[in-house]
Amino acid sequence: MVVSPARPPRLRLSLPGPVWLLPALVVGVACGVASTAFLAVLEAATRFRLTHEVVVFALPVAGLLLGAAYERLGPALHAGTSRVFAALDGGPTLPARLAPMVLLGTVFTHLFGGSAGREGTAVQMGAGLADSVAGACGLSGATRLRLLVAGLAGGFASVFGTPVAGVVFALEAPRAAGASVPSGALLPAALAAWAGHHTAEALGVVHLHYPTFQESVPLSGVLGWLGLAVGAGAVAWVFVRATHSVREVAARRFPRLAPRLFVGGALIVLLWQGLAPLGVGSDPLGLGLPLITSAFDGTRPAYTFAVKLLFTVVTIGFGFIGGEVTPLFVIGAAFGALVAEPLGLPLVPAVGVALVGVFAAASKCKWALTVMAVELFGWHAALPAGLVCLVGARLSGREGLYR
């Protein structure tokens, strides 16, 4: 009998100090390339939907096909960002097919009119790419976890154009979800965020331009800013509770993903058609970026933020692929435009601060969103954004967006 020699154990490496530069840089560049491709395909899908609006009626069938694909390729792929946070707590490695699957799933959602974002896709792609790099390099557990954090930072930074906020988000969001962040993760996260952001820009990505605050925002009307913080916390509380509740009820009534997405898609179509007499149109579908622009102009109806909230809760709650950040930006901006005058606040600063404040309150990532406000609107946004993000996160309840 021939006995084959035992396979030698796979070499596991722990890379300290400056050796981190190469894998973190590779992850950042990969995130930039992936985000560039993702944003380009997403923009093409959005343009197609806007010029062929009839495809929205196919959203239930698209959901059925999407759910069947995820059921076949692995239900764990549908776990979303929570799977990434679980991996940081010693969970299983992320499969290599995670990045392409979540990209295609998100594009599918937007192509047929689901109200979702792109942050969840970007950070999941970044983490999936990071785990692939870690596996290819044979990195040890602690080193792999640091690289996962770098993937989160690179994905967030490259898709939003905010590298500093990407680093803070990667360090803050896992803790908000109850996961741990390994020590020594700051340097690789910063390098990956920098590389991802500049790679995306070099490849031609142009991010949405926001108006900068041209002068210092007075805090003399501090009661107005506190009122905005209370409102942001309330809107975030409603969004989080509604999303979790819809997700739990939908999963209980429709245990299989495919029929659940079919029903969710049908509800979106019914809402879209039922609200048509109000002149809602297609703005609540997809990312809804035009609603942000109109919020800064103060040209949208008062109910805009509530309609976008409703569409997003149904889309995400029933399990369509995407993220919540951009829809929450839209909801926050529209809410800021609604309450600016009653609270005695200038329109543009109120819209900008509410834009980051609602997401900060929902995600509990108050520091990341304060930094993002500075990157998007300039240094004059620091004080009011910090106040609204901190107070709003405190008042929005103990449960956050990430679990």
Protein traits:
403 residues; mainly alpha; Clc chloride channel; 2 domains; disordered N terminus
In words, what does this structure look like?
The chain is an all-alpha fold. The chain has two domains: about 20-200, Clc chloride channel; about 220-395, Clc chloride channel (Orthogonal Bundle), CATH 1.10.3080. Helix content is about 65%, strand content about 0%. The protein has 16 helices and no strands. The chain has helices spanning about 20-50, 60-75, 80-90, 100-110, 120-135, 140-160, 165-175, 185-200, 220-255, 255-275, 290-295, 305-315, 325-340, 345-365, 365-375, 380-395. Helix 1 crosses helix 8 (about 185-200), helix 2 runs antiparallel to helix 4 and helix 9 crosses helix 16 (about 380-395). The protein starts with 20 loop residues before the first helix and ends in an 8-residue tail after the last helix. Mean pLDDT is about 90; it is low at about 1-15.
Short description:
This protein has 403 residues and is mainly α.
Topology diagram in text:
Layout: H1 21-51, H2 59-73, H3 81-88, H4 98-111, H5 119-137, H6 141-160, H7 163-176, H8 186-202, H9 222-253, H10 257-274, H11 289-297, H12 304-317, H13 325-339, H14 347-363, H15 366-377, H16 382-395
Helix pairs in contact: 1-4, 1-5, 1-6, 1-8, 2-4, 2-10, 4-5, 5-6, 6-7, 6-8, 7-8, 7-15, 9-12, 9-13, 9-14, 9-16, 10-12, 11-13, 12-13, 13-14, 14-15, 14-16, 15-16
**Order of helices and strands, N to C?**
HHHHHHHHHHHHHHHH
Percentage of residues in helical conformation = 55-70%
Structural class: mainly alpha
- What is the CATH superfamily of the largest domain? Clc chloride channel
Mean pLDDT across every amino acid position: 88
Number of strands: 0
